Automatic annotation (TrEMBL):
Enzyme class: translocase
Membrane topology field: Multi-pass membrane protein
Protein name per its UniProtKB record: Cytochrome bc1 complex cytochrome c subunit
Keyword Transport: yes
Domain of life, per lineage: Bacteria
Lineage start: Bacteria, Bacillati, Actinomycetota, Actinomycetes, Kitasatosporales
Pfam families per UniProt: Cytochrom_C, Cytochrome_CBB3
Organism: Streptomyces liangshanensis
Length: 269
C-alpha cells in the first residue's frame, strides 16, 4: 500500500492518468462512431461525381468548357448548383439543340440516375441550389389562395393568369405550365432559367413556393374546371372580357342588321 501511495504522489501520475483517459475515449469513439455509413456516403458521392464528369465530358464540355468554366457558346456552370442541372437536363432543354434566343424543350435523353450524376459533378464545381426534396414542392399544407396572390404578383406578366404561357420580346417566350413537374417548377424558381428571374428562399421562402405550385396545379391541371368555358389562353379577365364584348356586340349588330333587312317592309321597298 505504501508503494502504491508513493506512486500516486509521483509528479507524472496526473499525466499518466490523462493519457489513459484520452486513450480510452479514443477507443470508445472508434468502436461506436458510424464510420462505415459516413465512408459509404462519401464513396457513393465520389462515384456519382466521377460518373457525372464522364457524362459532362461527352455531352456538355463542348459548349460549357472542359471544367465548366464556360465559353463563347455556353455560360459558366460554376455555382449554378444541382437544381439547375436537374431542371435543364430533366426537362430536355439541355443538351441544347442549337443556340438561340429560346432553348426549346425536347425529348429527355438521360435517365434520372445519369441526371443525378451529372448534377453531382456540376455541384462539385461550386456551391449552388440543391435539388429539392418532395416535401419542399408537395402541395400538402399549401395555401392555394395565397399562391394565387403570389402568382398574379410575380408570374402573370409572362405566364398569363392561369400559367398558359405567352410570347415575349426578341423571339423569347414563357412556356405553358400545364403538365410541368412540380419539382421542375420549384427548381425554376430557385435557379431562374433563361429569361426567368430567380426567386431564392431569401426572396420567396419555401412555403410561398409550395403555395404557388399548388395554385398552378389548381388552375392549370388536367382536372381544372373552366367555369367560363373558352378561356382564350388565360389572358386575364380584362382582356377576355374586352374580346367577348367586342365580338359579342359585333355579333348582335350583325344579327340586328340581318333581321332588319329581311322584314316585310324592307322586302317591299
Amino acid at each position: 500500500m505504501k508503494k502504491l501511495s508513493a506512486r500516486r504522489r509521483h509528479p507524472l501520475a496526473a499525466v499518466v492518468v490523462l493519457l489513459l483517459a484520452l486513450a480510452a475515449t479514443g477507443g470508445l469513439y472508434a468502436a461506436f462512431a458510424p464510420a462505415d455509413k459516413a465512408q459509404a456516403d462519401t464513396t457513393s458521392q465520389s462515384l456519382a461525381i466521377e460518373e457525372g464528369k464522364k457524362i459532362y465530358s461527352v455531352g456538355c464540355a463542348s459548349c460549357h468548357g472542359v471544367g465548366g468554366q464556360g465559353s463563347s457558346d455556353g455560360p459558366s456552370l460554376v455555382g449554378v448548383g444541382a437544381a439547375a442541372v436537374d431542371f435543364q437536363v430533366g426537362t430536355g432543354r439541355m443538351p441544347a439543340q442549337q443556340p438561340g434566343a429560346q432553348v426549346p424543350k425536347k425529348k429527355v435523353i438521360y435517365s434520372q440516375k445519369e441526371i443525378d450524376q451529372l448534377a453531382a459533378y456540376v455541384a462539385s464545381l461550386g456551391a449552388g441550389p440543391a435539388q429539392p426534396t418532395s416535401e419542399q414542392y408537395s402541395p400538402d399544407g399549401a395555401d392555394i389562395a395565397r399562391g394565387g396572390d403570389l402568382f398574379r404578383t410575380n408570374c402573370t406578366q409572362c405566364h398569363n393568369f392561369t400559367g398558359e404561357g405567352g410570347a415575349l420580346t426578341h423571339g423569347k417566350s414563357a412556356p405553358n405550365l400545364d403538365g410541368v413537374d412540380p419539382k421542375h417548377i420549384y427548381e425554376a424558381m430557385q435557379t431562374g432559367p433563361q429569361n426567368m428571374p430567380s426567386f431564392p428562399d431569401t426572396t420567396m421562402p419555401e412555403q410561398q413556393k409550395k403555395d404557388l405550385i399548388a395554385y398552378i396545379q389548381a388552375v392549370n391541371g388536367a382536372d381544372s374546371p373552366s367555369p367560363g368555358g373558352l378561356n382564350l389562353g388565360g389572358l386575364g379577365p380584362v382582356s377576355e372580357g374586352l374580346f367577348g364584348w367586342i365580338f359579342g356586340l359585333g355579333a348582335c349588330i350583325a344579327v340586328a342588321i340581318w333581321v332588319a333587312a329581311h322584314t316585310a317592309k324592307a322586302k317591299k321597298s
